[in-house]
What does this fold into?
Amino acid sequence: MWNQKIAYVDLGTGKVETKYIPEEIRRKYLGMRGIDTYLLYNHIKPGIDPLGPENVLLVSSGPLAGTPVPSACRTHVSALSPLTECVGSTSMGNYFGPELRYAGFDHLVIKGKAEKPSYLWVHDGQIEVRDADYIWGQDCFEAQKSVKAHHGDEDVQVMTIGQAGENLVKYACVRTGLKATGGRTGMGCVMGSKNLKCIAVRGTLGVELFSDADKMIDVCYKLWKEKMSHRLHYMDKEIGRGGFFGNTNTIGLIRNKNFQRNQMVDGTDIEPENLDRFAIGRQACFACKLHCRFRFKLTTGPRAGEYAEGPDYTTLGTMGAELDNESMDEVLACGELCDKYGMDNMEIGSLLSWAIELYEKGIITIEDTEIPLEWDNIESKYEMIRRIAMREGFGDVLADGAELAIQRIGEESRYYCIQMKGMSNLHSDERPTPSLALNVAVSTRGPDHLRGRPIQDLMALPVPVLEKMYGGGPMSSNYNSYVGKARMVVASENRSALSNCLGTCGGIGGGGEVGGLKEVVYLVTGLKLTQEEADSIGERVYTLERMFNNRQGRGRKDDYLPDRYYDEPTPVGMPMARGKTIDRKEYDKMLDEYYEFHGWDSNGVPTPETLKRLDLTNEPSNLL
Amino acid sequence: MAKTISVDSSKCTGCRLCELVCSVKNEGIANPYLARIHVVKWEFECFEIPMLCRQCDVPFCTAVCPVNALYKDEALGRVVVDYDRCVGCRMCVLACPFGGMKYDTKGQKVTKCQLCDGDPTCVKFCDTQALQYVDAGDIDLNKQREYAARSYQQQKEYKESIGPEVGHPGPADTVAPGWGRWKGGE
It folds into this structure.
């Protein structure tokens, strides 16, 4: 049953309107990323300033959040991205999303701009805009502690920005708890631009269930058992998602020293097994058995002595491999510094390592940067991260994101910058793997591994198995090949979009699979979806995101990789990863195939038949 | 022997699945606020401990109940509320030093952990075995064994650090340093 509503909050006037979401919308978009994309398409006018009051900030939770359904605890934050000016979309775990539902809301649509620093206090169907003087200027951890103390309740959940968000760093993130981060596409910057420091929620209303309690318990128990039997979760429970770092580094699929190498010289110390020497326990998101994160006390750096959680795959990769830190202590210290100020560590890793490479090559000098940027100078890395968050000196240049930074430094720096659509890539090197390269280049929100990375491609599955999985051929088991990779990417994108609409974690069950989706949705909400409806949701949402980007002036020209992918062969790595580049012609062919599988024309614009098939002809239909 | 729910805070990951399934099972709604178990957190100091009714042998709640609506069920080792007698005065809520008695403002009744009639749902869902349903007499044995294993490991490491000839090697299959606390599960 849906006892949750959508709320429209105007920060300028403090006015709040609430209503229920029509079933028609639920059937087409389900919730979370789906409905957020719909709202984005309807409420954002083309050509607006992402940091102006016309931008809308969307905060939402999935239709299964707050129920015992496995790992359905995600929070989704969406807006027009200040970094890419495309669709801004990011999701995070922890306790915020379920608490939002317990407070009676599925979606918050935050419009306008507050006159002075404010925060939203959401509790049991009520939303108030409150004065945030007492927390403005605090970092992500202090702010959460202050709000919890102010309301006198430890169970208040806070989604906040740090100093980086207040200073409008383009890739500032939103954070909740010690670890959960909605990092990509600069949603913290949008919050900062609205003078909104945080959103605090506390709910006692609960989520009403459609089916009876005993049935729910039985079904969830079975689902958990099924999910946890996945082999991957043995790794998750022991060392967390960081476990992937070791094998990708060994093969040679990571970026080291920006893009100069594809393997670390010595990455043994930053393999997650070594976290054992810090670890004091495990931490889980809301109602999740996976507990995929470590807890530890920091030993070095500006935050030494404080407690922290993590790290995951990207922290190890960006702070370790890209910045060439070979000691786990330093990786954790850098990662936690980004967390404190509230910045996306994928962007910091990419941009900072880019700046260090430019410094090494002499494109920027000490006169530009004021402090020496060197691979083995950890103190300067700490200082640079702080300066980016505070927008001091050269930090101000990097704080503007890749595209503006290139303009300020000079065009000769463009070649060295690994960015697509204005957003930096994560720490992985996709030259040996065309499927992953295609995925990062075409991803609607910009490059990263969380929106449909076809990770199955690395597992060398037999061709008949692949043909069965992806419903056709030709396919190839070789990850160096270009055959059938577009098909894989399309299927992964649609599935990850569906998983984001449900609000389940991509980590569980081996990459966002949602076993028994229709049945679970029916048991929790009473919404009976047909198989065709369930299958089309992911594709519809992904296509609508593409339509949004096209409306923002993006197209085929933005679906290419940086030149370095085509021109520089990988220097090291295992035989299958060494000496590889992306072939321009083959890539073009793969891109054509990709558009064809999605039902888009050769410019990446959905064809009228596709729009009709997905029931998108009437968009924007302004129903919400 | 009557069983009881043993709590080991060092294994707790703070996920609150116990709260959630407790509310679904007992109240029919997913609402941790109404759960009879509550994970108390110091989130930024990485510590949490699940709190629930201790099923005392000489319960404070039964002692203060003016209408004898609370009584000790010896067979399952639990304290039970007789809702036919309960008048909702909430004396038990005041008296319980652990916060084991809860007043549900929506259902207008006092609630407490009644061990799900011998099959506690929270224990069933707890993956790290921070919650275990064991014979009351076995709790100390389990804790002794766990603590001894940790202590043994430290001593072994110390002995190895000062030289191979000092001390004996000990059993081979003991818990690896720091890992045993969250190993477990199915």
User: Anything to note?
Assistant: The beta strands of chain B are 3-7, 29-30, 38-42, 47-51, 70-73, 78-81, 102-104, 109-111, 131-135.
